[in-house]
């Protein structure tokens, strides 16, 4: 008997095909490759702090599920900021 619908691709094969394609990053915005880890983390921390304020301010203008979604995004940003701050502390534990 002929099967009408095809079987889905094997997950491993699909994963291998996606990863086999080389990644070509955009050169529109480039981070200077000679920046040290601490400088990169400081800039990431400042960006996350700004994003946290923006999402909190924006959430205050929303209602219902949209507000809940924005507050969830704000929480993810806050958790990311905490992780970056801990990474900075790990780099320079004397402070």
Task: Summarize the helices and strands and which ones pair or pack.
Blueprint lengths: L10 H10 L16 H24 L3 H28 L4
Helix pairs in contact: 2-3
Describe the structure.
With 95 residues, the chain is mainly α. It has a domain of 58 residues. Helix content is 65%, strand content 0%. The mean pLDDT is 85.
Q: What letter string, H or E per element, gives the SSE order?
A: HHH
Report on the biggest sheet. Answer: none
Indicate the proportion of strand residues.
under 5%
Overall mean pLDDT stands at: 85
Number of helices: 3
What shape does the CA trace take? extended
Structural class: mainly alpha
How far do the termini sit from each other? 72 Å
What is the helix fraction of residues, given as a range? 55-70%
- Contiguous uncertain segments of 5+ residues: none
For the secondary structure, the number of strands is 0
**For the CA atoms, what is the radius of gyration?**
21 Å
Oligomer: single chain
């Amino acid at each position: 008997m002929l099967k009408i619908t095809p079987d889905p691709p094997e997950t491993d094969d699909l994963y291998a095909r996606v990863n086999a394609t080389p990644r070509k990053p955009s050169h529109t915005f480039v981070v200077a490759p000679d920046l040290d880890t601490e400088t990169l983390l400081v800039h990431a921390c400042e960006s996350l702090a700004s994003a946290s304020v923006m999402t909190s301010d924006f959430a205050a203008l929303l209602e219902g599920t949209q507000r809940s979604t924005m507050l969830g995004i704000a929480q993810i940003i806050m958790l990311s900021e905490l992780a970056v701050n801990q990474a900075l502390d790990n780099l320079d534990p004397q402070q």
